[in-house]
Amino acid sequence: MPESPKPKRRPWLQGSGFAVGRKKSNSKFYTSTAWRKLRSMFIQQNPACVECGRAGKVVDHIVRVNEDETLALTWDNLQTMCHRCHNSKSGKEAHK
Which residue range is the domain that position 75 belongs to? Predict the structure, then answer.
């Protein structure tokens, strides 16, 4: 009997494992249509990591969403980073 295909992951949906480790208040923001559209446009216009110049896949908030929610969807508060540089920045912020 043939097996049915595995369902595709949809990280923008709640409960898909995408928001593991995030505060619940943030997970609702990061799954919003407004954030996903802004993130997509920002990466198209700024494809390189601001730290190392490699291709960036992460859109990082300069001022964290938890610190100032009014800057969450502000273009000037965003920067593109590769995973390595973003993890380094986030780790340093977490251990301050």
Answer: 25-94
